[in-house]
Design brief:
The protein has one domain (about 5-105): Thrombin, subunit H (Beta Barrel), CATH 2.40.10. The chain is about 0% helix and about 55% strand. The protein has no helices and 8 strands.
Length: about 110
């Protein structure tokens, strides 16, 4: 099993609902899951979404690898006055067979 990212580098909690696809009444998401090991950065940057369009991301979330496709709903700062629910515009996976694998979700 590859090593885990040290907890001190992932001090935040987020809630994720994976995007399952579009249904007859709109987008469909899976069950909400609380992720206690994340790093949240509120910063604005331009990224490319799943359709290769340039879009502006206002929040970046670093996580250990998990199922989190673009379009997923991510709640950052849950339970605080800064809580916000955002859609994942793009998700990047960084897989290292013997090192610290992680993923980055760029939120709207």
């Amino acid at each position: 099993m590859p090593p885990r990212i040290p907890s001190r580098l992932l001090p935040h909690t987020v809630v994720v609902r994976p995007f399952l696809g579009a249904g007859p009444y709109g987008d469909v998401w899976g069950q909400a899951e609380t992720v206690k090991r994340a790093l949240v950065e509120d910063k604005t940057q331009v990224v490319r979404d799943a359709g290769a369009r340039e879009v502006t991301s206002s929040t970046t979330v670093y996580l250990e690898p998990r199922e989190l496709p673009a379009g997923s709903e991510v709640t950052v700062w849950p339970g605080t006055q800064w809580e916000k629910k955002r859609k994942a515009l793009a998700v990047s996976h960084f897989d290292h067979p013997g090192g610290l694998s992680h993923m980055v979700a760029y939120l709207e």
